[in-house]
Amino acid sequence: MQTRDFKTRSLFLPQQNPYRNPDAWEIGIDVGYSGVKGLSRNMAYCFPTYIKKLSADCISIGKPGPMDIVYRDGETGAMYAIGEKAEKMISLDSGADNNTALYGKNRYFSDVFKLSSRTGIGLGLLNNKFGDPSGKKIKIQSGLPPAYMKEDQERLKEALMGRHVFDLKIGTGDWIHFDFTLDESNIKPPMQQPMGVLISAITDKNGMPEMDARNIMSGNTMVVDPGFRTCDLCPMRNSDIDPYDCKTFEELSMFEIMQRTCNEIRDRYGMVISVPAIQNYLEKGKIKVMNRKELRSEEVDFTDILSAKAEEVCEELIAKLLELTNYFQETDTLIIGGGTGAAWESQIRDRFKNLNTLRIISGGKNSCLPPIFSVARGYYMYAINRP
Question: How much is the average pLDDT of 145-155?
Fold first, then answer.
């Protein structure tokens, strides 16, 4: 296991995605608790869900990185580092940033959500050789964990609606100006997140149902979507999904893995590190441990801690799946989605290797994109096929 595999990535991938309506510009966007993932007609992209306000006196020295994003508010002129650039500004002292704003359920009217979602939509509206959104009607498809659907879908729509005026600077590029208004006609009703995984798993690269789609839809299928803040389980029986059968577990998530890892680092080495701050250590998998009394420091590898906690939480997920499905007695197919699901897939397959009547497939199996895009890809495919 590599600790860097658990790091929230920044990716800008220009590509031709299928579409149906030449006059519409669909964006499938997954504003997750750790990262924003999106697909449009001409792009797939992701970046960490993190912001840092920049001082008016802040001076940048050196060349910006290719994934650096700076946001400038069109009304106030305030500037913010977005995504990876903002994460790199976290220190151990400031790393305990407001976890409620970052990871709380009621985050929709926070600056973190506002700026991250605006940036995500803005990236989906960039033009390149694969398409230009100019003059086309914007259509946004997003989603929510099943447990949050009833209470939060109107909040999510309200947070996305309105006039959005801002500028983005990406890497060494020029400032790009955005000024658009979204109303109910631009925003499709949010989907349950596991549905994004399901649709991605049964939709080919041309946006059409794959040959096996009918068998998956007509059988008994369990969709597992472990994300950063929640793990969503969604059973489907003969093409029907009962929302009351869908479950959301916050304790079976990547956040739980990171929190347990931070706790173990604290207990073992006396180093207090927050979940947001640990992102900057995942690339190398090492932390600097200080002995202030002896004025001594050393670099310590924490791969073993992270690996043990990831395996531990995955075993808890496996136990929950066995409980809820009666050991998959009536389940034909298990679909695993998301980046956390990809990290756990080999462990899940190994545990269920003797269940010969259970087929296990990846939510990203029809795509060359990394597994983190499975939900957003499903949103996009749903949007283009259901105007």
Answer: 89
Please give the average per-residue pLDDT across 42-53, as a whole number: 96
**Nearest residue to 124 via CA among 10, 29, 51:** 29
What pTM was estimated for this model as a whole?
0.94
∠147-122-143 over CA atoms, to 5°? 15
Q: Go through 13-26 and write b for each residue having 16 or more CB atoms within 10 A of its CB, e for each that does not.
A: eeeebebeeeebbb
Q: Would you place residue 387 in the very low, low, confident or very high pLDDT band (cuts 50, 70, 90)?
A: confident
The pLDDT confidence band at residue 65, using thresholds 50, 70 and 90, is confident
In this prediction, residues 322-334 reach a mean pLDDT of 95
Q: Given the structure tokens 């304790």, which residue do they identify?
A: 251
pLDDT value for 290: 86
- Residues 56, 59, 65: CA angle, nearest 5 degrees: 115
What band does 355 get if pLDDT is binned at 50, 70 and 90?
A: very high
pLDDT at 243: 75
Residue 242 burial by CB count (10 A; 0-12/13-18/19+): exposed, middle or buried?
exposed
Assigned token pair, 257: 């893995």
